[in-house]
Design goal:
By secondary structure, this protein is α/β, with parallel strands linked by helices. It has one domain: Rossmann fold (3-Layer(aba) Sandwich). Helices cover 45% and strands 17% of the residues. It has a five-stranded parallel beta sheet, sandwiched between helices.
Length: 155
């Protein structure tokens, strides 16, 4: 799965996802589930490619493999980029960390890693329902924030 899905360009209102996973077996499990959830998917296979895509598109969901290109959680270049983004830009994305170390839905681990959700590799078969629940909780949590933000912007 070394190419992007047919939908390389997004339309306004599309559900969009960036999958920063360089492990093909994991890609084969994740991408079809995202497509089934009506996400248009881009694959980010190289650091430069991912950083360019993050500057070009505003993704609803960004999935980052903790060992992307042999990195660790501590030196993962994509995670570092996401944590260095200003808060308003960071909140545009629902960031998921795919992990061998952390358990699925580990809220404290997610907080420490500055992501919205953690999904353990062992739970990839349940990726779709776990992600759906996480995104729904995230929307509920930030709904009033976004409404207030829009109101302030219109003043």
């Amino acid at each position: 799965m070394d190419q992007e899905t047919d939908n390389s360009f997004f339309d306004v209102g599309d559900n969009t996802a960036l999958v920063c996973v360089d492990h093909q077996q994991f890609q084969k499990i994740i991408v079809p589930q995202l497509i089934d959830m009506t996400y248009k998917v881009h694959l980010g296979l190289f650091q430069e490619d991912v950083l360019l895509k993050l500057k070009t598109y505003s993704y609803n969901v960004v999935i980052i493999y903790e060992n992307f290109k042999g990195s660790t959680v501590a030196n993962n270049p994509i995670l570092l980029e996401m944590t260095q983004r200003p808060g308003v830009l960071r909140r545009e994305h629902f960031v998921v960390l795919l992990s061998h170390r952390f358990p699925t839905n580990d809220a404290m681990g997610a907080f420490v890693q500055s992501v919205d959700q953690i999904i353990n590799i062992a739970d990839l078969a349940n990726f779709k329902p776990v992600l759906r629940r996480g995104v729904a909780q995230h929307r509920e949590l930030y709904q009033s924030f976004y409404e207030t933000f829009k109101t302030v912007q219109s003043l």
